[in-house]
Design a protein that fits this description.
Blueprint lengths: L1 H22 L1 H8 L5 H27 L1 H21 L2 H16 L1 H10 L7 H9 L1 H39 L4 H4 L12 H10 L5 H27 L4 H26 L5 H16 L11 H15 L3 H11 L5 H30 L2 H9 L1 H11 L3
C-alpha cells in the first residue's frame, strides 16, 4: 500500500506537470501571439523525447532503483516547467524535451517498483488504481491551472507546479532504503539496450499491446492537448472549458478501476482492451458533430465517452505487459511498450495540427485520429488468445 501510494502521487505530479502547458495553451498562445497549431509541435517534441527516455530507462532503473529514478523524473519535470515559464520559444523546446522525457519515465519506474509487491492476479486492479493518478493529475491541472493563471499568470502557474514537484521528490527520499533494495549497482547502460527493448516488445506476445498502446496513447494525447482549445474555439471561456475537461477526467478514475477489476480474472485483458479500442474510436468520430450551438452538457457526453475509454486503458495494458515480461525486465518491457505509445503521442497530435491548419476543423481532427481504433480493436479481439 505504501508503494502504491507513493507511486500514485508521483504519477499525479508527472501528469499534472506534463499537461499544464496544453491546458494553459489558450493563455500562452494569446500572450505570446502564437498560432494554435504550435501546440501540436510542442506535444510532438515532448513525445519524441519521451520515446527515447522510455526506451533507454530500463538499465538506469536497475542500476539506481525505481524510487531514485522516480525522483529524477520529478526533477526533470520541474526543470521543464521552469524553462517553459521563462517564455522564449527556444526555452519551450528544451521544456518539451526535459519535461516530456522526465514525466514519461515515471510509469516504467513505478511499474518496476510495484511489480515486486503484487501478484499477477492482483496486477490489473493494482496497476489500474495506480494509473488513476493520470486522470487525477489532469483533473488537478484542469481545475488549478486556470485558477493559478488567474492569480499569478500562466508563468506563475508553471513555476508553482515545478516547486511542488521538487518538494515531493525530496519527500520520497526516506522510502529509498526499502524500495531500491533490489537495485543492481553494477548494471551499466549500453546503446544496445534500445534495440533489446524493441526486440522484446515486438515478440508475438507483446506486439499487439505495443501497437495498441501506439493508437491509445496517441488519441489520449490529442484529447488532452486539444480539447480545451477546441472548447475555447467554440466560444467557451477558459475556466468553463477547464472545468468541463476536469469533469470528464473524473469519469476516468472509476473507469480505470472498473476496467482493472474486470481484467483481474473476470474478462480476458486483451478482449477488454479490444472493446475499449472500439469505444474510443466510436466516441472520437462523433466529434465533428459538435458545433458552436452545442451546450456544454452535450459536449460533455462525448467527452465522457472518450474519457471512459481513451483515458482508462492504462492499468489493464500495463498489467498484461508486466505479466508477459521476462523475469527482471518489467522496466524494459514497460518502457518498450510505452515507447510505441509515444510514437502515437508524437504522430497523432502532428496529424491533428496538420488537419487543423488545412481545414480549420477541430472535430475532423478528432475523427481522423480516432478512426484507426476500429482496426486496432478488431486486431486485439481477433487475436485475444
Amino acid at each position: 500500500m505504501l508503494a502504491l501510494a507513493a507511486m500514485f502521487v508521483q504519477q499525479s505530479f508527472a501528469t499534472l506537470g506534463r499537461s499544464l502547458p496544453p491546458i494553459l495553451a489558450p493563455a500562452i498562445v494569446a500572450d505570446l501571439g502564437l498560432d494554435p497549431a504550435w501546440l501540436g509541435v510542442y506535444i510532438g517534441i515532448s513525445a519524441a523525447a519521451a520515446l527515447v527516455f522510455q526506451l533507454g530507462c530500463g538499465s538506469f532503473i536497475l542500476r539506481y532503483g525505481a524510487l531514485r529514478f522516480s525522483q529524477v523524473a520529478l526533477v526533470l519535470l520541474a526543470l521543464g516547467l521552469g524553462l517553459a515559464a521563462a517564455g522564449p520559444m527556444l526555452f519551450f523546446l528544451f521544456s518539451a524535451i526535459l519535461g516530456g522525457g522526465g514525466a514519461a519515465t515515471s510509469t516504467p519506474a513505478s511499474s518496476h517498483l510495484l511489480g515486486r509487491y503484487v501478484t499477477p492476479r492482483q496486477a490489473p486492479l493494482i496497476y489500474s488504481i495506480k494509473q488513476t493518478a493520470v486522470p487525477a493529475g489532469l483533473l488537478a491541472a484542469g481545475l488549478l491551472g486556470p485558477l493559478m493563471t488567474a492569480y499569478w499568470g500562466w508563468r506563475g502557474a508553471l513555476v508553482a507546479s515545478a516547486l511542488a514537484a521538487l518538494v515531493f521528490a525530496l519527500m520520497l527520499q526516506p522510502l529509498r532504503a526499502e524500495f531500491d533494495s533490489d537495485r543492481i549497482p553494477a548494471k551499466s547502460f549500453h546503446l544496445s539496450d534500445f534495440l533489446t527493448a524493441i526486440q522484446v516488445v515486438l515478440g508475438p506476445g507483446l506486439r499487439p499491446l505495443a501497437f495498441g498502446c501506439l493508437m491509445f496513447n496517441g488519441l489520449q494525447s490529442v484529447f488532452t492537448t486539444y480539447f480545451v482549445l477546441f472548447l475555447t474555439h467554440l466560444g467557451h471561456g477558459l475556466a468553463a472549458a477547464g472545468a468541463l475537461f476536469s469533469v470528464a477526467m473524473v469519469i476516468a478514475v472509476p473507469g480505470r478501476i472498473f476496467w482493472g477489476w474486470l481484467g483481474a480474472g473476470r474478462v480476458e485483458p486483451r478482449l477488454l482492451l479490444g472493446g475499449l479500442s472500439l469505444g474510443m474510436a466510436g466516441s472520437a468520430v462523433l466529434m465533428p458533430l459538435v458545433g458552436p450551438g452545442w451546450p456544454l452538457l452535450g459536449i460533455g457526453v462525448i467527452a465522457t465517452g472518450l474519457s471512459a475509454t481513451a483515458m482508462s486503458w492504462h492499468g489493464v495494458l500495463l498489467a498484461e505487459t508486466a505479466r508477459l515480461a521476462p523475469e527482471g525486465m518489467h522496466g524494459h518491457c514497460t518502457g518498450g511498450v510505452l515507447s510505441f505509445g509515444q510514437v502515437g503521442a508524437l504522430v497523432l497530435p502532428l496529424v491533428y495540427a496538420g488537419i487543423l491548419v488545412t481545414t480549420g476543423s477541430h472535430g475532423l481532427g478528432f475523427a481522423l485520429c480516432g478512426a484507426p481504433g476500429f482496426a486496432v480493436g478488431w486486431w486485439l479481439l481477433r487475436g485475444k488468445r
